[in-house]
Structure formats: C-alpha cells, structure tokens
Amino acid sequence: MVERRSHLKLISVHLPESYVIGLDELVDRGLYPSRSEAIRIAVRDLLRRELWRRRKLTTRRMLA
After folding, report:
1. Residues in the chain with pLDDT < 50?
2. In-domain check, residue 63
C-alpha cells in the first residue's frame, strides 16, 4: 500500500549510473510506474527486512 502523497518527503540521492539504467529498465518493462515508485518500494522492503522485522524479533524475545 502506497502512502498518501501528502505524507511523502522529497530527498535527493546520488546513485551510480548503472542503478539508474536498471531503474529505467524496470519502468520501461512496466513493472513500476516511475523511478520514484520503484525506489519507494525498494526502501520499504529494506526497512521491513532490516529494521521492522528485527524489532518484532527483539520484542518477541523480550516477552518470552
């Protein structure tokens, strides 16, 4: 689920050209509507994996 646009913050990111080319390919293939959406989904997935799931595991361990 995508957050409402009013909650989005603009940030600038420097990426290697190969990443930008890869993002453009994903958009050209129709997998994402834009570079921004592809990056939002990638960041969301990273946070889920690296941050939010670890917090859940830590909380579960504390409750056990």
Report:
1. 1
2. yes
In this structure, are residues 38 and 27 in contact, taking their beta carbons and an 8 Å threshold?
Answer: yes
- With beta carbons less than 8 A apart as the criterion, state whether 2 and 40 touch: yes
Residue 46 lies in a domain: yes
Number of domains in the chain: 1
Give the domain range for residue 31. 27-64
Which H/E stretch holds residue 14?
Answer: none
Whose tokens are 């600038």? That residue is 12
Amino acid identity of 36?
S
Instruction: Answer yes or no: pTM beyond 0.85.
Output: no
- The dihedral sign for the CA sequence 26, 1, 55, 60: negative
Confirm whether 43 is domain-assigned: yes
